[in-house]
Design a protein that fits this description.
With 326 residues, the protein is mainly alpha-helical. Helices cover 42% and strands 7% of the residues. It has eleven helices and six strands. It has helices at 12-24, 66-81, 83-106, 114-121, 141-146, 161-179, 182-191, 193-202, 215-232, 264-269, 275-281; strands spanning 26-27, 33-34, 53-56, 59-62, 252-257, 297-302. The strands form three sheets. It has a two-stranded antiparallel ribbon with strand order 1-2. Strands 3-4 form a two-stranded antiparallel sheet. The longest helix has 24 residues, at 83-106. The protein is globular, with a radius of gyration of 26 Å. 29% of the residues are buried.
């Protein structure tokens, strides 16, 4: 391929010529050698800055100690460069944080615990772990029943966002009554109060961030911290979002049900919905029927006029920090 004169175009051929100039020098028709420019700057991957401290549940946590800084570095780097998943978390938060936050507040649980739900389930209300924990807050079946979540052949309230958040608040409140330390409360959500209590005493009551625990639990607090940092300043960590990228909150009407529903598809059709619509907004409905078993349930009916993204730019942004400020 022959490079035309001294003009470098933006065609594929021009790019090849440009590469030749950068790495081998360029000889024009007069055999005059043009000085070789420095090589073009390649994409650079940088390590995210680790703050010297972070505030969690109103308490300042010093991150300068070696284990804390390095633990923070691992998790912040992971979330900052796990682009597709972290971006999806921000999109989902716009829909689910408006539901979670008022419930935390009503139960006097610090708002920062919404980030615990993020790392537990990726804000997926239908999440199932390898250990078969389920829902936004990842309850095991035995724990769910302990906190009065119904688990029957046709109902699993671990998938009910409101009910499972209320149950999580009860657990967190009980743990705080026991420990008086929100970091220990967070650790106990992962490992259980029994395990944390025994290790805390056996290790002579260190700071929660300095306990020696299994890897999953040791990383748990720093994962919460990392999500908090990114959610509070996404652009700093490379996430440029705008309103049209976020998942909108879809208003729903509530229908109280105290009798069996033999066919949920027929029930949904009565509201001009499909069975899949009904289950997406009520993932706790396990079957194609509902047996109430002397209980009363609230079914969410999404409003038809809000089921489309005809004007995605008009999506309400729950937290203005999530979008680019023009």
């Amino acid at each position: 391929m022959k490079c035309p004169g001294k003009t470098i175009g933006f065609t594929a051929g021009g790019a090849i010529c440009l590469a030749a100039i950068f790495f081998a020098g360029y000889n024009d028709s007069s055999n005059t050698t043009v000085e070789t420019p420095p090589p073009a700057l390649r994409a650079v991957t940088t390590s995210p800055d680790i703050p010297p401290q972070i505030t969690f549940c109103g308490e300042t946590v010093d991150l300068a100690r070696y284990n804390r800084r390095e633990g923070m570095d691992r998790e912040l780097s992971s979330f900052a460069y796990y682009h597709s998943t972290t971006m999806l978390l921000l999109k989902r938060a716009n829909r689910y944080f408006p539901v979670i936050e008022p419930i935390l507040k009503a139960h006097h649980i610090p708002d920062d615990f919404k980030y615990l739900a993020v790392i537990e389930s990726n804000l997926d209300p239908t999440a199932v772990s390898p250990a078969r924990a389920r829902g936004l807050w990842q309850f095991m079946e035995s724990t769910a029943k302990e906190y009065r979540l119904a688990v029957t052949p046709t109902v699993d309230e671990r998938y009910n966002i409101r009910r499972s958040t209320e149950a999580a608040c009860k657990y967190l409140s009980e743990a705080y009554d026991k420990y008086g330390d929100w970091l220990l409360v967070a650790l106990s959500y992962n490992a259980g109060m029994g395990r944390i209590s025994s290790e805390y005493d056996r290790q002579h009551r260190p700071a929660a961030t300095d306990m020696w625990l299994v890897e999953e639990t040791s990383r748990y607090i720093y994962r919460i911290f990392a999500v908090k940092l990114i959610f509070e300043n996404p652009y700093k960590y490379g996430f440029a979002m705008n309103a049209r990228n976020l998942y909108k909150s879809i208003p729903c009407d509530e229908v109280t049900v105290s009798e069996d529903i033999p066919d949920l598809a027929d029930f949904a059709a009565g509201y001009q919905l499909t069975l899949s619509d009904l289950k997406r907004f009520n993932p706790w409905l396990k079957d194609t029927r509902l047996n109430v078993e002397k209980n009363t349930y609230v079914i969410l009916i999404p409003r038809i006029e809000h089921l489309r993204y005809d004007n995605p730019d008009e999506t309400t942004v729950h937290d203005p920090r999530w979008v680019e400020q023009n």
